[in-house]
Write a structure and sequence with these properties.
single chain; 468 residues; alpha+beta; six-stranded mixed beta sheet; five-stranded mixed beta sheet; 9 helices; 26 strands
Length: 468
Amino acid sequence: MGASAVESVLAVDFGTTTTCAALARGGSVRRLREPIGDGWAWPSAVLLAGNRPHVGSAAEQRRLLDPAAYRDELKRTLGRGVPVDLGGRGHPAGLLVSLLLQAVRAEAERANGGPVDRSVLTVPAAYGPADPRGEELLDAARRAGLPGPELCPEPVAGALAPLAGGPLPPGSTVLVHDLGGGTFDTALVRLPGEDGRPGPAVLAHDGEEYGGRDFDALVYAELLARGGPELAALLPPEHGEENRDAAQDDTALRHRIQLLDLARRLKHRLAYESAPAEVFAPAGRVLGLHRDRFLRQAEPLYARTTACCARLLAETALLDTTGRPPRPDAVVVIGGSSRLPGLVEHVAQTLGLPVVLAEDPRTAVAEGAAAWAAARVVRTVEASGPVPERTPLRWPLPPGGAVLLEWSVGPGRRYPAGAVLGRARAADGSLLHLSAPAPGRVRAQHARPGEQVRDGDWLMTVEQHHED
């Protein structure tokens, strides 16, 4: 383990726009600050100046010096298999992500007083077991030196985050509403129960590709409209213009970055000011916002989040076969963009459910993931030897194998000696009956209809029984 006998776990919420981290140790969870930015989040950004990398706030602080060498929203680059262009050079997406994770690991080791013992990274519930984005993220974590990285679904972490007013009752079912910087995700999550029910578990999930950056775009467009043609002339053209040199392009790109930064600052100030304003230095003009106008413009995006939630609940009820579809006891609102004015009120009014807020919506997922990882007691699984009375069944198949057509006897069902357990079609088109040599009960099927099977494949496990 690390500097002491107490196990430590680093949890990283690698987000589209920002990355947050928390350290679990000795039964407590603490958030990690970014040393340079002095905040609770690292911007998910990198800048390569020559061969020297800068990540997080360090990259943001230098992006006006070399805009072409800067890239944010690193999460969107995963799983595409396409090099990321920085300053005219292509770089593997996983390598860029690993640079950011190295900085997070270094701060965790400083706070821990030595290396951490385990690590966990959060991913959207939409990432399946073999999703290339999850695999590339794990590779980046290993390259960054994170020990034993695991993956935790973001909605599970959000449901376990510190909540204002204290935790929800054991066994609760919650609807997680997670509006982040680049995505919106919602999920039904069942919390562990006192009766021994397993959990937490994602029962259903949905999401869309929009988030805080879309609100930034609303504000940016509003500022551009207020600034008029004089402001537009300072920015990069929407379409290429002739007779523009590289210096003009770099200057215009810097102005665009500065206007985007101003848009984000004013957006955040709307949470506590009704009409924030600042001077936009390149134009020498005062630009501002009005909260009421922003709310009118943002309403369609707010409505998209609750429509997604309502769709998820309706589809879950439609697909239920028990007659008792899961119903949420509350909505847990997380994500940095959940601090936008009027959003929580919209969620409560539209969904008609109690709303529970995270203590800090920005770091909620990282803190919940740390708690999730720290609570996972079982870490080692021993292999078991042969089980008496259980027999693997293999059938001799002709050269070229066959395609499994169907199973005739399902798991848990008994069958007599000579029963046809399934059927397959050989490469020459002939039909094969897969029969049982002795009576028994089916334990498991290891191939699915439509799959190619070959001579010697272990296709089924059964329990042998003696006929009475």
